[in-house]
């Protein structure tokens, strides 16, 4: 009775442990904490206040937006009340009939707050107006108008910067949930699939990876986060990708690859994290962005390949089936990279291949005009 519940609990705890041990989550967030920072160092965030305000959460931006306007209205309302009080304009001061106030119809704290709000927001209902008898009131009007314009510009800039943040564009770049290892073009490759969910292109896209693992040097030093470069490429190269449709990125497992010493039965026992980066410039906004994801050994499948997702309809249109984006099928693959390169008969290729349902076969009469993708 409790068997399925125990299995679900164990799988949940295992998944939670994997999430905690990741440096980079699947959606690109870095799982790292900073400790023992001196309090004086926190003032550097105030020195770079623009970046601080752009990076804080929306709830705090909205709170600061409301507080900045409300507090400025109230503080200037107190100043207008003080000017009216010094001039004897308030109701309880019982000004004479021929008395000229600094501000018409400001006879208390509430009316002073309303005049402050109307001045800073340039509403101007017409019920309250400044008179020329108080030079201090004229100076206060100029100061409030200038400060109100500064607050408006600052808050509008913060909101527009957060809305147009390149991080939002990165959310429309999707990586496959799993990575696969299989033969490809005569080589043993680790493959990852990536897709641009928008029709607008990413200009100058570049893909690269870092393998993070703990290593021990010959001097006995333990490096907790040793980084090894992992090169990815498509058939057309690794720079300036034509990112108009989903691409399969490949890392060739050669003798210089850190995956060369691994095998199908030892891969999931390893402790490492493969972080993949994609840098590019959004075509519509010209803003640079970076997309990140990571793969742990349990998310790398040896002896599998991705299902085809691109087909061509009878009308001549290309179609991408995202239902197969992360789906894989088993293929004949060598037990290890060493076997693939050194032992004959261990690098079998699938003769039958995989049929892409809905793909239309077309005849190409000029083979010389074919361009590899």
UniProtKB/TrEMBL annotation:
Keywords: Cell membrane, Ion channel, Ion transport, Membrane, Potassium, Potassium transport, Transmembrane, Transmembrane helix, Transport, Voltage-gated channel. PANTHER family: ATP-SENSITIVE INWARD RECTIFIER POTASSIUM CHANNEL 1, INWARD RECTIFIER POTASSIUM CHANNEL. This is Potassium inwardly rectifying channel subfamily J member 1a, tandem duplicate 3. Belongs to the inward rectifier-type potassium channel (TC 1.A.2.1) family. One of its GO terms (biological process) is nervous system development. The chain crosses the membrane at residues 60-83, 137-160. It comes from Hippocampus comes. Residues 173-340 form the Inward rectifier potassium channel C-terminal domain. The lineage of its organism: Eukaryota, Metazoa, Chordata, Craniata, Vertebrata.
């Amino acid at each position: 009775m409790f068997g399925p519940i125990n299995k679900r609990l164990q799988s949940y705890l295992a998944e939670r442990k994997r999430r905690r041990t990741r440096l980079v989550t699947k959606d690109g967030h870095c799982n790292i904490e900073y400790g023992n920072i001196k309090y004086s160092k926190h003032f550097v965030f105030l020195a770079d206040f623009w970046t601080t305000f752009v990076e804080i959460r929306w709830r705090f931006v909205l709170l600061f937006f409301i507080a900045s306007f409300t507090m400025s209205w109230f503080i200037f309302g107190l100043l207008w009340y003080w000017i009216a009080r010094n001039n004897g304009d308030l109701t309880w001061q019982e000004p004479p009939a021929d008395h000229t106030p600094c501000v018409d119809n400001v006879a208390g704290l509430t009316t002073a707050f309303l005049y402050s709000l109307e001045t800073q927001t340039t509403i101007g209902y017409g019920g309250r107006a400044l008179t020329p008898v108080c030079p201090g009131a004229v100076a206060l009007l100029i100061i409030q108008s200038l400060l109100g314009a500064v607050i408006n510009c600052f808050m509008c800039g913060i909101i527009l910067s957060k809305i147009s943040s390149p991080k939002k564009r990165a959310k429309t770049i999707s990586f496959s949930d799993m990575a696969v290892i299989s033969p490809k073009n005569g080589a043993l490759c680790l493959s990852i699939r990536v897709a641009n969910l928008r029709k607008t292109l990413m200009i100058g896209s570049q893909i690269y990876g870092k393998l993070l693992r703990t290593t021990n040097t010959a001097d006995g030093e333990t490096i907790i986060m040793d980084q090894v470069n992992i090169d990815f490429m498509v058939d057309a190269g690794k720079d300036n990708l034509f990112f108009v449709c989903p691409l399969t990125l490949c890392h060739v497992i050669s003798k210089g690859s850190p995956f060369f010493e691994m095998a199908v039965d030892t891969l999931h026992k390893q402790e490492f994290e493969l972080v993949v980066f994609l840098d590019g410039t959004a075509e519509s906004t010209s803003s640079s962005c970076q997309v990140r994801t990571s793969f742990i050994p349990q998310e790398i499948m040896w002896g599998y390949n991705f299902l085809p997702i691109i087909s061509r309809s009878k009308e001549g249109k290309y179609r991408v089936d995202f239902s197969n984006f992360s789906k894989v099928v088993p293929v004949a693959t060598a037990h290890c990279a060493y076997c693939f390169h050194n032992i004959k008969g261990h690098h079998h290729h699938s003769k039958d291949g995989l049929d892409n349902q809905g793909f239309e076969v077309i005849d190409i009469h000029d083979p010389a005009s074919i361009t590899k993708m």
